[in-house]
Design goal:
- By secondary structure, the chain is an alpha/beta fold.
- The chain folds into 2 domains: 203 residues, UDP-n-acetylglucosamine1-carboxyvinyl-transferase, Chain; 206 residues, Alpha-beta prism (UDP-n-acetylglucosamine1-carboxyvinyl-transferase, Chain).
- It is 31% helix and 25% strand.
- It is built from 14 helices and 24 strands.
- A 4-stranded mixed beta sheet has the order 22-23-1-24, with helices on one face. Strands 2-15-17-16 form a 4-stranded mixed beta sheet. Strands 4-5-3-14 form a 4-stranded mixed beta sheet, with helices on one face.
- β12 and β13 form a beta hairpin.
- The longest helix has 13 residues.
- It is globular.
- The structure holds uridine-diphosphate-N-acetylglucosamine (UD1).
- The site of uridine-diphosphate-N-acetylglucosamine has 22 residues, from α1, α5 and α6.
Amino acid sequence: MDKIVIRGGRPLKGEVVVSGAKNAALPVLISALLTDRECRYLNVPQLVDTQTTLGLLTEMGSTIVADKEGIAIQIAELSSPVAPYDLVRRMRASILVLGPLVARVGRAKVSLPGGCAIGARPVNLHINALRKMGAQVDIEDGYIVASAKRLQGAKIYFDTVTVTGTENIMMAATLAQGTTELQNAAREPEVVSLAETLIAMGAKIQGAGTSTIVVEGVGRLEGTTATIMSDRIEAGTLMIAAAITNGDVVVKNCNPEHLLSLSELLQQAGCVLEKMDNAIRVQGVTRPEALDIVTSPYPGFATDLQAQMMAFMSLAKGTTLIAETVFENRFMHVGELCRMGANIKIDGHTAKIVGVKSLQGAPVMATDLRASASLVLAGLRATGKTEISRIYHLDRGYEAMEKKFALLGADIRRVKG
Ligand code: UD1
């Protein structure tokens, strides 16, 4: 297995370009299931998760042609509406095929995702919503088996804000009979970008980006060309990298409006930020001010940036509290950060981080995607050598991360295992 080896202590300097967003690409690629026409996608990031998604679509009968500019997908006939355990196990977001499959061919068999490193992550809200839309949904041998002649519009209230739940049901509702209203819907920019893609395919959707989304079902959807939006979590990770190394970096090809909560926190910590056209410049600090941080659904501070921010706060001039309110077990990085000299204690959903003057390089192990990113950031700042193993987590969601950091002046390399 590959490792990343970093010799830390170099401030990052220069310009870096953000890739297409993993969390936008997955639902947008999967939306091709809703039509028999060809769809083209541009700016698709090269990630293990996008490959897994294309693999899933191929198993269902899609023709996929990739060239330099993008990827064309056509699912003229949906031969097998099944998402097998092996693929769902590798990528939980495979659950996103459930709604589109039932909407298009009236049946779906999708493996239950099961537990994962950051918490139980159930899919009950996806299932309940489909049932409200008239689908028969049963659990058989670890699979969700769903069927419906034609889904019916319904009023659906999500009692927890769920990103993929909102996306799944919004896709299902595009081909349903009648109007579906999603209340307490996720407001993430990735939901908006999916809605824009669906609208370009002929769907009738209003309110994406607010907590009430109304979808009026149509008889069929057409093909489209969609550009994957830039990755706000990658952009945020690069911003925190500039901050933690006391560097000076222009993060290009990002939408500063999507990064307001992080920008606010970095400024409170003492960093200097400059908003530019589709870019943000971040100048770091030797030691940040301590902060109080709470994760919450968009537009709040993203749980997907919590681990990276914790690495930064481990060097603060005081004590930081980070409350994780989205997932119940998302502190897997704490033990590894402590091995690098951080002083962090967990009490339920809150981490108490007593700032230290420096971090020291150590051999550490990645446990999930964003936890891996936090260890890379800590390694970039730490004195000496950090060796991060199990980086396949990183490859699921960051395109060429070590190359981007190397271009900014970091001493970082991938060692093939
Ligand atoms: C998505 C993102 C992930 C991000 C997360 C929260 C993608 C592919 N992944 O994950 O990167 O960390 O949003 O911003 O876009 N829940 C239930 N029942 C359900 C569904 C969710 O209880 O049926 C709970 C979850 O356990 C969690 C909370 O709702 O505690 C939010 O999860 P959700 O927004 O669904 O996360 P994902 O969509 O899986």
